[in-house]
Specification:
With 170 residues, the chain is mainly α. It has 2 domains: 69 residues, no CATH class; 88 residues, no CATH class. Helix content is 46%, strand content 6%. The chain is built from 9 helices and 2 strands. Strands 1-2 form a two-stranded antiparallel sheet. The protein is globular and about 50 Å long. About 6% of the residues have low confidence.
C-alpha cells in the first residue's frame, strides 16, 4: 500500500522509462547524510507523512539505474535534475527549501520550457531571475514563457504584499 503510494508520488516510473513492476523500483537518497531511515517500505508502520518527508530526499529509480548510480555512472547535476522533475511532475513541489537550495547553487541546467502548471506555481514562489537560474535560461526567457502560456505574474509591489501575507500566491 505505502510502496504503491510512494511510486505514484514520483510519477510511477524511473527516469529511464521503466514502469512495468513496482517491486523493481527503488528509492535512492541523494545525500546519505540527510537519511533518517531506510525506505524499504516493508514491515514498517510509519505514517504516510513521515514516509513522504523521507521520499523528498530521494529519487525513484529502477534496480538497474540504481546500480549505475552507485557505480558512479550518473553525476550529481543529472540526479538533482531527475529529483526536481520527479517531485514537480504533476505534484505540488513538496520541499521548497531543497528546491531553493538547488536554484541558488545553479545546479539544474535545462533549457526545455517547463509545463504551464509548474511555471504557474513557480512564478508565485520565486522571482523570474531565480526561475531562470533553475532552468539555465535568462529571466527574459522566463518572461517569454509566461507570455506564451498566458500566465499572470506578480506585479510591482506584489512581492512585499506576498511577504507580509496580504496576497497569497496563485
Amino acid at each position: 500500500m505505502i510502496k504503491r503510494k510512494a511510486v505514484a508520488f514520483f510519477g510511477g516510473e524511473c527516469f529511464c522509462g521503466y514502469n512495468k513492476c513496482d517491486k523493481v523500483l527503488e528509492f535512492h537518497h541523494l545525500n546519505p547524510g540527510e537519511k533518517d531511515f531506510n525506505l524499504s517500505l516493508r514491515g514498517h508502520s510509519r505514517s504516510w507523512e513521515r514516509v513522504k518527508e523521507e521520499l523528498i530526499k530521494c529519487i525513484m529509480v529502477c534496480a538497474n539505474c540504481h546500480r549505475e548510480i552507485h557505480a558512479g555512472l550518473h553525476d550529481e547535476t543529472f540526479l538533482l535534475t531527475i529529483q526536481y522533475k520527479q517531485l514537480s511532475n504533476g505534484y505540488e513541489i513538496e520541499d521548497k527549501k531543497r528546491l531553493s537550495k538547488i536554484v541558488e547553487n545553479k545546479i539544474i541546467r535545462e533549457s526545455k520550457r517547463p509545463e504551464k502548471e509548474i511555471l504557474e506555481k513557480l512564478v508565485w514562489e520565486m522571482s523570474c531571475v531565480k526561475i531562470g537560474q533553475l532552468f539555465g535560461v535568462s529571466d527574459n526567457a522566463v518572461n517569454k514563457w509566461c507570455k506564451f502560456y498566458g500566465i499572470n505574474k506578480p506585479g510591482r509591489g506584489d512581492w512585499e504584499k506576498i511577504k507580509h501575507g496580504k496576497i497569497l500566491g496563485r
